[in-house]
TrEMBL record:
Molecular-function GO terms, alphabetical: flavin adenine dinucleotide binding; oxidoreductase activity
Organism: Phytophthora fragariaefolia
Domain annotation Berberine/berberine-like: ranges: 128-162
InterPro entries with a match to the protein in the record: BBE, FAD-bd_PCMH_sub2
The protein, known as: Unnamed protein product
Amino acid sequence: MKNLPPSMINSATIPRSTPLDNTTAWSLFSNTAFAPKFADASASGFIDVWGGKYAEGVTADASAWKHDDRLHLIRWDIRTASFDLKFADSTMTAMRSNFYKFVSAYKASGGEPGGFTTYRDEKWTVPEMAEYLYGGGKFAKLQKIKTKYDPKEMFNTDPQAIPALA
């Protein structure tokens, strides 16, 4: 298997109920695509259009995943040029800080961003992970299931795994 260069991904999902407006879209672009370039990494991203009949048909209580009523997935990535190069800590900090300036502006405008489990932020605390990935009581529901079937947390191999209730 070919070695891939190191990468870092930040993402947020945007609900149909609070789409981006001119101000939040400007915050997104000014803190990502128009932000200063990194010396040791290249950046790219996309806005994936979600929605449609499937998203409209999924009610908030039908799934643990926060994909109900989602309009967009916004993803911002950085990569090094080669597998043997690493990011400077300052690059990762700046990339994350810039992305969360947009997320904060979106929240300040009344939006409730979600997350995408595949692109979750490794620096999230468990409460942040619960908010972004599972919001609306879904985390508590998953904790009850976790407590019933894995009370000793045998399958928790990740710091952001859903913890069993004490």
